[in-house]
Amino acid sequence: MSACDAPVLIEGETGTGKELAARAIHYQSARQNGPFIPVNCGAIPDSLIESELFGHRKGAFTDAKENQPGLVTLAEGGSLFLDEVDALSTKGQVTLLRFLQDQEFRPLGARQVEHGNVRILAASNASLPLLAERGAFRSDLLYRLRILCLELAPLRERRGDLEPLSAWFLDACHQRFGLGVKSLHPDSLAWMNQYHWPGNIRELENLLYREYLLSEGPVMRVEAPKGMRLAAPDPVDAPSDDLSFHRAKARAVEAFERNYLTRLLDLAGGNVSLAARLAGKERRSLGKLLKKHGLGRAPRPKAFSRDGLISA
């Protein structure tokens, strides 16, 4: 998606990181040195849509006391990110469609048509094809926006992502607030891996920031919310009917340990000392666990960089 210049539609639930994905596409594209201009379509009044997008000239209307560039002009040579594009009114959809057809526009009060050199990245937490079927979104605009499509899965469906994301957010807290390196207690990770996460990654981030600031020790015990909704259990991980309770428990603990240690090493880049600090364990104790599962013999690249993007 970064290699070409076509419009991209990013779909996903609230809090799945659609703007972060849009920024990643922009900063890995040929337009990376140009501006990235985000705009919330739901916050633009219907009467101002043309002025906001294309700007206006002095005297175009009563309060137009000077020339004002629009978002398209501000994003010249870069990318214009239209968040909540499904919130555009019928008038707004027509206005955007007209620009997408040939990238030409005329500021309010201007006589000359201007050309915009921008890439359109759009995001929606609603299904645009479904809205188009219901007549709530223009099909022709959908086809213009959906040349390339990226669908972000909710956190509850991204198995194995919660541990590295949590560790990255906690490290970001340490860098920002300076209250020491902290990690999550395995009991907290257990319920968090089963939680439905209606707010997705944004909910996880806010929870960890709050708990980091309120907790006193290096290992954080986060209480499960009352009446929390659990994600559906994975049938692959369910114990077989022929297993005794103790054997089923042993297998579950072994699977948890191996998965946790693997993710921990990924975050620590294979550094056992750093992994021990992140886990809140003594290095020798962690070393025994790694040896038990045959891990820690080769360095591993970090899963996340400082800017929050997944590293190669």
Automatic annotation (TrEMBL):
Entry keyword set: ATP-binding, DNA-binding, Nucleotide-binding, Transcription, Transcription regulation
Domain Sigma-54 factor interaction: from-to ranges: 1-213
Lineage, top ranks: Bacteria, Pseudomonadati, Acidobacteriota, Holophagae, Holophagales
Pfam family, one: AAA_lid_14
Record's keyword annotation contains Transcription regulation: yes
Superkingdom as given in the UniProt entry: Bacteria
Name of this protein: Sigma-54 factor interaction domain-containing protein
Transmembrane segments: none
SMART domains per UniProt: AAA (SM00382)
CDD domains: AAA
Organism this protein belongs to: Geothrix limicola
Signal peptide: none
